[in-house]
Design goal:
- The chain has 445 residues and is of the alpha+beta class.
- It has three domains: 227 residues, no CATH class; 50 residues; 138 residues, Heat Shock Protein 90.
- The chain has twelve helices and five strands.
- Helix 3 packs across helix 4, helix 5 packs parallel to helix 8 and helix 8 crosses helix 10.
- The longest helix is centred in the middle third of the chain and has 76 residues.
- It starts with a helix and ends in a 5-residue tail after the last strand.
Length: 445
Amino acid sequence: MTLAYTLNTILYTVPCFVLLYLTFRKHIIPPAIPRLVASIVLFSIISVLGSYTFAVLITSSLSRTLFSVPLIFVGTAIFCGIADFTFWQGVFIVSAAKCYAENVRLISLFLYFTCAKRLPNISSLQFAGTTFIVTLFSFYAIYQFFTKLLLPALECTFALNTWQILWVIPICNTVIHTLLVSPNIANLSFFPGNEFYFIPPLWTLLTFSTNGILLRMIIDISQNARLKEALQLSETQITAQQKQLESLQSHMEQVRRMRHDSRHHVMALRGLLKNSRNEEIEAYLRELSDHIPSLPENYCDDPSVNALLCHYHSQAKDEGISVSFLISIPEDHPFSSTDLCIILGNFLENAIEACRRMKSSDKFISLKMTLHRRLTLVIMTENSYEGAVLRARDGSFLSSKEKNRKGLGISSVLHVTEKYNGIPRFEYQDNVFKAFLLLNAKEQP
Protein backbone atom coordinates (compact mmCIF):
# COMPACT_ATOMS: atom_id res chain seq x y z
CA MET A 1 0.00 0.00 0.00
CA THR A 2 1.25 3.50 -0.90
CA LEU A 3 1.84 6.36 1.50
CA ALA A 4 -1.13 8.26 0.04
CA TYR A 5 -3.40 5.23 0.48
CA THR A 6 -2.30 4.81 4.11
CA LEU A 7 -2.80 8.53 4.73
CA ASN A 8 -6.32 8.43 3.32
CA THR A 9 -7.13 5.41 5.49
CA ILE A 10 -5.86 7.28 8.55
CA LEU A 11 -7.98 10.31 7.65
CA TYR A 12 -10.98 8.00 7.36
CA THR A 13 -10.56 6.26 10.73
CA VAL A 14 -8.66 8.56 13.15
CA PRO A 15 -11.32 11.33 13.27
CA CYS A 16 -13.84 8.64 14.21
CA PHE A 17 -11.59 7.41 17.05
CA VAL A 18 -11.11 10.95 18.34
CA LEU A 19 -14.83 11.73 18.03
CA LEU A 20 -15.89 8.62 19.92
CA TYR A 21 -13.29 9.13 22.65
CA LEU A 22 -14.07 12.81 23.25
CA THR A 23 -17.81 12.14 23.34
CA PHE A 24 -17.91 8.94 25.39
CA ARG A 25 -14.71 9.09 27.51
CA LYS A 26 -16.75 9.20 30.73
CA HIS A 27 -18.42 5.92 29.76
CA ILE A 28 -15.19 3.93 29.29
CA ILE A 29 -15.10 0.85 31.48
CA PRO A 30 -11.99 0.68 33.72
CA PRO A 31 -9.17 -0.08 33.34
CA ALA A 32 -9.55 2.63 30.70
CA ILE A 33 -6.08 2.96 29.13
CA PRO A 34 -5.36 -0.76 28.42
CA ARG A 35 -8.86 -1.30 27.03
CA LEU A 36 -8.64 1.85 24.92
CA VAL A 37 -5.23 1.04 23.44
CA ALA A 38 -6.17 -2.56 22.67
CA SER A 39 -9.41 -1.49 21.02
CA ILE A 40 -7.74 1.19 18.88
CA VAL A 41 -5.07 -1.25 17.69
CA LEU A 42 -7.61 -3.97 16.92
CA PHE A 43 -10.00 -1.63 15.14
CA SER A 44 -7.15 -0.01 13.19
CA ILE A 45 -6.07 -3.40 11.86
CA ILE A 46 -9.65 -4.22 10.87
CA SER A 47 -10.08 -0.81 9.23
CA VAL A 48 -6.88 -1.10 7.16
CA LEU A 49 -7.75 -4.62 6.03
CA GLY A 50 -11.31 -3.57 5.31
CA SER A 51 -10.21 -0.54 3.29
CA TYR A 52 -7.76 -2.67 1.29
CA THR A 53 -10.49 -5.23 0.64
CA PHE A 54 -12.83 -2.49 -0.56
CA ALA A 55 -10.24 -0.91 -2.82
CA VAL A 56 -8.64 -4.01 -4.35
CA LEU A 57 -10.61 -7.20 -3.82
CA ILE A 58 -14.24 -6.09 -3.96
CA THR A 59 -15.55 -4.09 -6.90
CA SER A 60 -19.27 -4.87 -6.84
CA SER A 61 -21.47 -2.36 -4.95
CA LEU A 62 -23.66 -5.15 -3.61
CA SER A 63 -20.62 -7.09 -2.36
CA ARG A 64 -19.24 -3.99 -0.68
CA THR A 65 -22.58 -3.42 1.01
CA LEU A 66 -22.80 -6.98 2.27
CA PHE A 67 -19.21 -6.69 3.52
CA SER A 68 -19.61 -3.30 5.25
CA VAL A 69 -22.54 -4.21 7.52
CA PRO A 70 -20.70 -7.07 9.33
CA LEU A 71 -17.73 -4.71 9.75
CA ILE A 72 -20.03 -2.29 11.59
CA PHE A 73 -21.13 -5.09 13.93
CA VAL A 74 -17.48 -6.04 14.56
CA GLY A 75 -16.67 -2.40 15.33
CA THR A 76 -19.69 -2.27 17.63
CA ALA A 77 -18.50 -5.32 19.56
CA ILE A 78 -15.11 -3.65 20.06
CA PHE A 79 -16.74 -0.37 21.12
CA CYS A 80 -19.11 -2.05 23.59
CA GLY A 81 -16.11 -3.88 25.05
CA ILE A 82 -14.71 -0.58 26.34
CA ALA A 83 -17.86 1.54 26.87
CA ASP A 84 -20.91 0.84 29.04
CA PHE A 85 -23.52 0.84 26.27
CA THR A 86 -25.79 -1.92 25.03
CA PHE A 87 -25.00 -3.59 21.71
CA TRP A 88 -27.83 -1.89 19.80
CA GLN A 89 -26.88 1.51 21.17
CA GLY A 90 -23.33 0.73 20.08
CA VAL A 91 -24.56 -0.09 16.57
CA PHE A 92 -26.24 3.31 16.38
CA ILE A 93 -23.11 5.10 17.67
CA VAL A 94 -20.63 3.30 15.41
CA SER A 95 -22.95 3.64 12.39
CA ALA A 96 -23.31 7.37 13.03
CA ALA A 97 -19.52 7.76 13.25
CA LYS A 98 -19.06 5.75 10.03
CA CYS A 99 -21.75 7.86 8.38
CA TYR A 100 -19.73 10.95 9.31
CA ALA A 101 -16.54 9.48 7.78
CA GLU A 102 -18.41 8.51 4.61
CA ASN A 103 -19.91 11.97 4.25
CA VAL A 104 -16.52 13.63 4.76
CA ARG A 105 -15.14 11.54 1.89
CA LEU A 106 -18.24 12.24 -0.21
CA ILE A 107 -18.02 16.01 0.27
CA SER A 108 -14.26 15.86 -0.36
CA LEU A 109 -14.90 14.17 -3.71
CA PHE A 110 -17.59 16.73 -4.52
CA LEU A 111 -15.35 19.73 -3.72
CA TYR A 112 -12.36 18.25 -5.54
CA PHE A 113 -14.45 17.64 -8.65
CA THR A 114 -16.01 21.10 -8.45
CA CYS A 115 -12.58 22.75 -8.32
CA ALA A 116 -10.55 20.46 -10.59
CA LYS A 117 -13.37 19.40 -12.96
CA ARG A 118 -12.29 15.79 -12.62
CA LEU A 119 -12.59 13.04 -10.05
CA PRO A 120 -9.47 12.39 -7.95
CA ASN A 121 -7.64 9.16 -7.36
CA ILE A 122 -8.84 8.02 -3.92
CA SER A 123 -5.26 7.03 -3.06
CA SER A 124 -3.71 10.36 -4.12
CA LEU A 125 -2.06 12.93 -1.87
CA GLN A 126 -4.22 15.69 -3.43
CA PHE A 127 -7.39 13.92 -2.31
CA ALA A 128 -5.87 13.34 1.14
CA GLY A 129 -5.29 17.08 1.43
CA THR A 130 -8.90 17.83 0.47
CA THR A 131 -10.14 15.26 2.99
CA PHE A 132 -7.97 16.79 5.71
CA ILE A 133 -9.40 20.27 5.07
CA VAL A 134 -13.01 19.00 5.08
CA THR A 135 -12.34 17.03 8.28
CA LEU A 136 -10.76 20.07 9.92
CA PHE A 137 -13.73 22.31 9.19
CA SER A 138 -16.45 19.74 9.89
CA PHE A 139 -15.12 18.10 13.06
CA TYR A 140 -16.43 20.74 15.47
CA ALA A 141 -19.92 20.49 13.96
CA ILE A 142 -20.04 16.70 14.23
CA TYR A 143 -18.61 16.88 17.76
CA GLN A 144 -21.46 19.21 18.72
CA PHE A 145 -23.90 16.80 17.08
CA PHE A 146 -22.56 13.91 19.17
CA THR A 147 -22.32 15.83 22.48
CA LYS A 148 -25.51 17.92 22.22
CA LEU A 149 -27.82 15.36 20.62
CA LEU A 150 -26.53 11.78 20.53
CA LEU A 151 -24.99 11.59 24.03
CA PRO A 152 -27.96 13.27 25.83
CA ALA A 153 -30.41 11.04 23.93
CA LEU A 154 -28.46 7.95 24.99
CA GLU A 155 -28.13 9.03 28.62
CA CYS A 156 -31.77 9.96 29.12
CA THR A 157 -33.01 6.71 27.53
CA PHE A 158 -30.13 4.43 28.47
CA ALA A 159 -32.17 1.27 28.96
CA LEU A 160 -34.99 2.07 26.53
CA ASN A 161 -35.92 -0.83 24.24
CA THR A 162 -36.40 1.63 21.38
CA TRP A 163 -32.65 1.46 20.64
CA GLN A 164 -33.24 -2.09 19.46
CA ILE A 165 -35.05 -0.48 16.51
CA LEU A 166 -33.38 2.92 16.08
CA TRP A 167 -30.04 1.42 14.99
CA VAL A 168 -31.69 0.50 11.67
CA ILE A 169 -31.73 4.17 10.57
CA PRO A 170 -27.95 4.85 10.44
CA ILE A 171 -27.36 1.32 9.11
CA CYS A 172 -29.75 2.06 6.25
CA ASN A 173 -27.89 5.32 5.59
CA THR A 174 -24.65 3.35 5.25
CA VAL A 175 -26.25 0.71 3.03
CA ILE A 176 -27.81 3.27 0.69
CA HIS A 177 -24.56 5.23 0.52
CA THR A 178 -22.49 2.11 -0.32
CA LEU A 179 -25.07 0.66 -2.70
CA LEU A 180 -26.26 3.72 -4.61
CA VAL A 181 -24.54 7.01 -3.80
CA SER A 182 -20.86 6.06 -3.74
CA PRO A 183 -20.84 4.08 -7.05
CA ASN A 184 -22.49 6.94 -8.95
CA ILE A 185 -19.70 9.33 -7.93
CA ALA A 186 -17.37 7.42 -10.25
CA ASN A 187 -19.97 7.45 -13.02
CA LEU A 188 -19.27 9.67 -16.00
CA SER A 189 -22.68 11.32 -15.50
CA PHE A 190 -21.33 13.14 -12.46
CA PHE A 191 -20.83 16.62 -13.88
CA PRO A 192 -22.18 20.14 -13.26
CA GLY A 193 -25.70 20.46 -14.55
CA ASN A 194 -26.51 16.79 -14.13
CA GLU A 195 -29.13 16.07 -11.47
CA PHE A 196 -26.83 13.67 -9.60
CA TYR A 197 -24.29 16.43 -9.21
CA PHE A 198 -26.30 17.84 -6.29
CA ILE A 199 -26.66 14.50 -4.50
CA PRO A 200 -23.51 14.65 -2.26
CA PRO A 201 -24.43 17.84 -0.34
CA LEU A 202 -28.11 16.89 -0.24
CA TRP A 203 -27.30 13.38 0.97
CA THR A 204 -25.07 14.74 3.75
CA LEU A 205 -27.81 17.16 4.79
CA LEU A 206 -30.43 14.38 4.71
CA THR A 207 -28.48 11.87 6.80
CA PHE A 208 -27.57 14.21 9.64
CA SER A 209 -30.85 16.14 9.66
CA THR A 210 -32.76 12.83 9.89
CA ASN A 211 -30.63 11.59 12.78
CA GLY A 212 -30.68 15.04 14.38
CA ILE A 213 -34.48 15.30 14.28
CA LEU A 214 -34.81 11.75 15.64
CA LEU A 215 -32.45 12.40 18.56
CA ARG A 216 -34.07 15.77 19.29
CA MET A 217 -37.46 14.03 19.52
CA ILE A 218 -36.04 11.45 21.93
CA ILE A 219 -34.59 14.18 24.15
CA ASP A 220 -37.84 16.17 24.06
CA ILE A 221 -39.89 13.11 24.98
CA SER A 222 -37.57 12.42 27.92
CA GLN A 223 -37.71 16.06 29.04
CA ASN A 224 -41.51 16.00 28.80
CA ALA A 225 -41.52 12.92 31.01
CA ARG A 226 -39.38 14.79 33.57
CA LEU A 227 -41.66 17.83 33.38
CA LYS A 228 -44.67 15.58 33.87
CA GLU A 229 -43.05 14.10 36.98
CA ALA A 230 -42.16 17.57 38.26
CA LEU A 231 -45.75 18.68 37.66
CA GLN A 232 -47.02 15.62 39.50
CA LEU A 233 -44.75 16.43 42.44
CA SER A 234 -45.95 20.06 42.40
CA GLU A 235 -49.55 18.87 42.43
CA THR A 236 -48.72 16.59 45.35
CA GLN A 237 -47.19 19.51 47.23
CA ILE A 238 -50.24 21.69 46.54
CA THR A 239 -52.59 18.90 47.64
CA ALA A 240 -50.54 18.32 50.79
CA GLN A 241 -50.53 22.02 51.66
CA GLN A 242 -54.26 22.27 51.03
CA LYS A 243 -54.91 19.33 53.35
CA GLN A 244 -52.64 20.87 55.95
CA LEU A 245 -54.48 24.17 55.67
CA GLU A 246 -57.85 22.44 55.95
CA SER A 247 -56.64 20.59 59.03
CA LEU A 248 -55.47 23.82 60.63
CA GLN A 249 -58.75 25.55 59.80
CA SER A 250 -60.72 22.67 61.27
CA HIS A 251 -58.61 22.78 64.41
CA MET A 252 -59.10 26.55 64.73
CA GLU A 253 -62.86 26.15 64.30
CA GLN A 254 -62.99 23.52 67.04
CA VAL A 255 -60.91 25.69 69.38
CA ARG A 256 -63.17 28.67 68.66
CA ARG A 257 -66.24 26.53 69.47
CA MET A 258 -64.69 25.29 72.70
CA ARG A 259 -63.84 28.84 73.77
CA HIS A 260 -67.46 29.83 73.12
CA ASP A 261 -68.76 26.88 75.17
CA SER A 262 -66.17 27.18 77.93
CA ARG A 263 -68.39 29.54 80.00
CA HIS A 264 -71.14 26.90 80.08
CA HIS A 265 -68.69 24.18 81.05
CA VAL A 266 -67.31 26.28 83.91
CA MET A 267 -70.81 26.98 85.22
CA ALA A 268 -71.70 23.27 85.08
CA LEU A 269 -68.52 22.28 86.90
CA ARG A 270 -69.09 24.93 89.58
CA GLY A 271 -72.57 23.53 90.19
CA LEU A 272 -71.24 19.98 90.53
CA LEU A 273 -68.38 21.15 92.75
CA LYS A 274 -70.78 23.10 95.01
CA ASN A 275 -72.75 19.91 95.62
CA SER A 276 -69.55 17.85 96.06
CA ARG A 277 -70.49 15.50 93.25
CA ASN A 278 -66.90 14.41 92.57
CA GLU A 279 -67.68 11.31 90.47
CA GLU A 280 -69.88 13.32 88.14
CA ILE A 281 -67.15 16.01 87.90
CA GLU A 282 -64.64 13.35 86.90
CA ALA A 283 -67.00 11.89 84.30
CA TYR A 284 -67.76 15.36 82.95
CA LEU A 285 -64.06 16.22 82.63
CA ARG A 286 -63.38 12.87 80.93
CA GLU A 287 -66.10 13.51 78.37
CA LEU A 288 -64.88 17.07 77.89
CA SER A 289 -61.29 15.95 77.26
CA ASP A 290 -62.46 13.53 74.59
CA HIS A 291 -63.79 16.48 72.60
CA ILE A 292 -60.59 18.53 72.79
CA PRO A 293 -59.23 18.66 69.19
CA SER A 294 -55.78 17.21 68.62
CA LEU A 295 -53.18 19.40 66.97
CA PRO A 296 -52.18 18.66 63.34
CA GLU A 297 -48.91 16.78 62.92
CA ASN A 298 -45.86 19.00 62.93
CA TYR A 299 -42.65 17.27 61.85
CA CYS A 300 -40.59 20.38 61.14
CA ASP A 301 -40.87 24.16 61.02
CA ASP A 302 -40.63 24.39 57.22
CA PRO A 303 -44.28 24.70 56.10
CA SER A 304 -43.80 23.18 52.63
CA VAL A 305 -41.71 20.25 53.84
CA ASN A 306 -44.02 19.64 56.80
CA ALA A 307 -47.10 19.62 54.57
CA LEU A 308 -45.45 17.10 52.22
CA LEU A 309 -44.45 14.87 55.13
CA CYS A 310 -47.97 14.99 56.56
CA HIS A 311 -49.37 14.02 53.15
CA TYR A 312 -47.13 10.97 52.72
CA HIS A 313 -47.46 9.97 56.37
CA SER A 314 -51.24 9.90 55.99
CA GLN A 315 -51.00 8.05 52.66
CA ALA A 316 -48.67 5.42 54.12
CA LYS A 317 -50.93 4.91 57.15
CA ASP A 318 -53.89 4.37 54.82
CA GLU A 319 -51.84 1.68 53.04
CA GLY A 320 -51.19 -0.12 56.35
CA ILE A 321 -47.51 0.86 56.42
CA SER A 322 -45.66 1.53 59.65
CA VAL A 323 -44.15 5.02 59.41
CA SER A 324 -41.46 6.75 61.47
CA PHE A 325 -40.35 10.34 60.81
CA LEU A 326 -37.56 11.98 62.82
CA ILE A 327 -36.96 15.48 61.45
CA SER A 328 -34.68 18.08 62.97
CA ILE A 329 -34.39 21.15 60.74
CA PRO A 330 -35.26 24.78 61.57
CA GLU A 331 -37.51 26.95 59.46
CA ASP A 332 -34.62 29.14 58.27
CA HIS A 333 -32.43 26.30 56.96
CA PRO A 334 -30.11 27.20 54.03
CA PHE A 335 -31.63 24.72 51.55
CA SER A 336 -34.35 25.33 49.00
CA SER A 337 -37.69 23.98 50.24
CA THR A 338 -38.49 22.98 46.66
CA ASP A 339 -35.30 20.92 46.44
CA LEU A 340 -36.06 19.19 49.74
CA CYS A 341 -39.58 18.44 48.55
CA ILE A 342 -38.16 16.90 45.35
CA ILE A 343 -35.90 14.62 47.39
CA LEU A 344 -38.43 13.67 50.05
CA GLY A 345 -41.32 13.40 47.60
CA ASN A 346 -39.43 10.99 45.34
CA PHE A 347 -37.99 8.94 48.21
CA LEU A 348 -41.33 8.57 49.98
CA GLU A 349 -43.24 7.98 46.74
CA ASN A 350 -40.86 5.17 45.80
CA ALA A 351 -40.94 3.75 49.32
CA ILE A 352 -44.75 3.65 49.42
CA GLU A 353 -44.82 2.09 45.94
CA ALA A 354 -42.33 -0.59 47.06
CA CYS A 355 -44.37 -1.36 50.18
CA ARG A 356 -47.57 -1.42 48.17
CA ARG A 357 -46.20 -4.24 45.99
CA MET A 358 -45.29 -6.35 49.02
CA LYS A 359 -47.32 -9.44 49.82
CA SER A 360 -46.02 -9.52 53.39
CA SER A 361 -47.70 -7.37 56.02
CA ASP A 362 -44.36 -6.33 57.52
CA LYS A 363 -44.22 -2.97 55.72
CA PHE A 364 -42.34 0.01 57.09
CA ILE A 365 -40.87 3.36 56.12
CA SER A 366 -38.34 5.28 58.20
CA LEU A 367 -37.10 8.81 57.53
CA LYS A 368 -34.46 10.76 59.43
CA MET A 369 -33.34 14.25 58.51
CA THR A 370 -30.84 16.23 60.56
CA LEU A 371 -29.05 19.54 60.00
CA HIS A 372 -25.47 19.68 61.28
CA ARG A 373 -23.69 22.98 61.90
CA ARG A 374 -26.26 24.87 59.83
CA LEU A 375 -24.68 23.85 56.51
CA THR A 376 -24.74 20.05 56.25
CA LEU A 377 -27.99 18.16 55.88
CA VAL A 378 -28.16 14.39 56.34
CA ILE A 379 -31.16 12.51 54.94
CA MET A 380 -31.61 8.79 55.59
CA THR A 381 -34.55 6.68 54.48
CA GLU A 382 -35.26 3.00 54.91
CA ASN A 383 -38.15 1.00 53.56
CA SER A 384 -39.12 -2.61 53.15
CA TYR A 385 -39.47 -4.17 49.71
CA GLU A 386 -39.80 -7.53 48.00
CA GLY A 387 -38.32 -8.74 44.73
CA ALA A 388 -35.28 -7.50 42.83
CA VAL A 389 -33.93 -3.95 42.56
CA LEU A 390 -33.34 -3.33 38.85
CA ARG A 391 -30.33 -1.31 37.71
CA ALA A 392 -28.92 -0.42 34.30
CA ARG A 393 -25.33 -1.04 33.22
CA ASP A 394 -24.37 2.52 34.19
CA GLY A 395 -25.58 1.91 37.76
CA SER A 396 -28.78 3.93 37.48
CA PHE A 397 -32.00 2.52 38.88
CA LEU A 398 -34.66 1.30 36.46
CA SER A 399 -38.28 2.26 36.88
CA SER A 400 -40.64 -0.26 38.44
CA LYS A 401 -43.57 1.33 36.60
CA GLU A 402 -42.24 1.15 33.03
CA LYS A 403 -40.05 -1.75 31.96
CA ASN A 404 -36.41 -0.98 31.13
CA ARG A 405 -36.77 2.77 31.64
CA LYS A 406 -34.58 4.76 34.00
CA GLY A 407 -36.31 5.82 37.18
CA LEU A 408 -36.87 9.54 36.77
CA GLY A 409 -37.39 10.04 40.51
CA ILE A 410 -33.91 8.90 41.52
CA SER A 411 -32.44 10.89 38.61
CA SER A 412 -34.13 14.03 39.96
CA VAL A 413 -32.79 13.32 43.44
CA LEU A 414 -29.25 12.88 42.10
CA HIS A 415 -29.57 16.13 40.14
CA VAL A 416 -30.46 18.02 43.34
CA THR A 417 -27.65 16.24 45.18
CA GLU A 418 -25.12 17.44 42.59
CA LYS A 419 -26.47 20.97 42.99
CA TYR A 420 -25.40 20.93 46.65
CA ASN A 421 -22.11 19.05 46.05
CA GLY A 422 -23.69 16.19 47.93
CA ILE A 423 -22.85 12.53 48.37
CA PRO A 424 -25.49 9.87 47.61
CA ARG A 425 -25.35 6.24 48.67
CA PHE A 426 -27.86 3.46 48.16
CA GLU A 427 -27.91 0.03 49.77
CA TYR A 428 -30.36 -2.82 49.46
CA GLN A 429 -30.19 -6.19 51.12
CA ASP A 430 -32.36 -8.40 53.32
CA ASN A 431 -35.46 -6.76 51.75
CA VAL A 432 -34.52 -3.33 53.14
CA PHE A 433 -33.72 -0.45 50.79
CA LYS A 434 -31.58 2.31 52.34
CA ALA A 435 -30.84 5.72 50.86
CA PHE A 436 -28.32 8.17 52.34
CA LEU A 437 -27.83 11.74 51.16
CA LEU A 438 -25.34 14.29 52.41
CA LEU A 439 -26.07 17.83 51.17
CA ASN A 440 -23.74 20.78 51.65
CA ALA A 441 -25.12 24.30 51.56
CA LYS A 442 -23.02 27.27 50.54
CA GLU A 443 -21.97 29.37 53.49
CA GLN A 444 -23.75 32.70 53.52
CA PRO A 445 -21.51 35.81 53.34
